[in-house]
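Continuing the batch. This is chain 6 of the set; chains 1 through 5 are on the previous pages. Same settings as before, nothing changed between runs. Recording input and output for traceability.
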Amino acid sequence: MNIGIVVSEFNEEVTSRMLSVATEKANTLKLKIVYTCKVPGAYDMPIIVNELLKKKNIDGVVTLGAIIKGQTKHDEVISHSAAKSLTEISIKYQKPVSLGISGPGMQERHAYARIRPVAERAVEAIDKIAKELKRINK
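Output for chain 6:
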């Protein structure tokens, strides 16, 4: 299966590690990463995910990001907007898009603690959903 990965540059110390973990997991599951795209932040992911899902050689997209709480509720706005848009794009193309974005309401120390589990689950979800879609559509 061919996948794309879209990773946020915001909170790069966390997201670069998430990308490493996701790449390891994809290799373990024998998924081929055809595209790795970087975007400024989680809010910017939907347009790139949309373009990737248009491609016939892409079976699904993993998104990776970390939305850390600040002094306002901006983290909630970003996470809700990104999640809603990514879900709509997934349904539009009938291809899986995993939400490997940790947050909102998360402090920096929580972001570091969630690197491995969030990144691994995001890759596993793409694999499982794509397989289930193929099974259903036989």
